[in-house]
Amino acid sequence: MAMRQASRGGKPSESNTTYEIALFGEFFSKDLPAIMNRITLHSESAHQMHTREIVFEPFDAHVQREKGVDPILLRARKELLEPDAKWVFYSYLKPESVRVHPDATVRPWATVQVQGDILSFASTLGYVRRSQIYKRGYVFRRGALVIQMFQQEKVDEKTEKPIPAHQDTLWEVEVKTATPVTSSKDKPLSQYVDSVLEVQLLMKGLLDLRRKDA
């Protein structure tokens, strides 16, 4: 199975390039009730999430870095609270320039579902596991967007099971398009950017949502 790869540096009007549009933020645990109430008020649905994510890098990543090249990372994600959930592999390319999209992160995004042994699948693509984390929190749906609010959990090296986050662990928020989107004459990327900026405005004064390039 081959992942459908988004093209690099395409023009916004090219329909073969798929993107994720996103904003990011973080807050302290003491602000959880107020932030959850406001997000819930402006969302259509909500449910709990507990996700395992594994990051893979090319087997020659160190060689690429020595040559000044940033290796393309491959990520695997599985929702543990859904009994029939499959692993989803995805990859981001470098975000579009801040001069083109100054208000939100707009990055090419390719994704595919995978059944079976994900380590073997990644290995056949020339990748090795670099790290993994668990994320526990909540997912909200707002139109074409998902809002994830979670704490990261570290991993027990012996069992690979999650270690519950400390009470004071920062909460992270990701506001992003739920599925890869394309730019078209009928619906340019600017409309998706406007959608995430609406959430930024709704959370103003309570949560700082911003663009990031990492």
Secondary structure blueprint with pairings:
Elements: E1 19-27, H1 32-41, E2 45-58, H2 61-66, E3 74-79, E4 87-92, E5 105-114, H3 118-124, E6 127-142, E7 145-155, E8 162-163, E9 171-177, H4 189-202
Antiparallel strand pairs: 1-5, 1-9, 2-3, 2-6, 3-4, 4-5, 6-7, 7-8, 7-9
User: Quick one: CATH class?
Assistant: Mainly Beta
| Strand arrangement in the largest pleated sheet | 1-5-4-3-2-6-7-9
Number of folding domains?
Answer: 1
Give the strand content: 35-45%
Poorly predicted residue ranges:
1-14
Order of helices and strands: EHEHEEEHEEEEH
Tally the beta strands. Answer: 9
- The CATH topology comes to Hypothetical Protein Pfu-838710-001
Largest sheet: 8 strands, antiparallel, barrel
Radius of gyration over C-alpha positions, nearest whole angstrom? 18 Å
Q: Residue share in helices?
A: 10-25%
Q: With helices defined by DSSP (H or I, 4 residues minimum), what is the helix count?
A: 4
CATH superfamily: Hypothetical Protein Pfu-838710-001
Overall geometric form? globular
CATH architecture: Beta Barrel
Distance from first to last alpha carbon = 28 Å
Supply the key terms.
214 residues, alpha+beta, Hypothetical Protein Pfu-838710-001, eight-stranded antiparallel barrel, 9 strands, 17% helix, globular, disordered N terminus
Walk me through what this model shows.
The protein is of the alpha+beta class. Helices cover 17% and strands 38% of the residues. It has an 8-stranded antiparallel barrel. A hairpin with a 7-residue loop joins strand 3 and strand 4 (87-92). The longest helix is centred in the C-terminal third of the chain and has 14 residues, at 189-202. The protein is globular, with a radius of gyration of 18 Å.
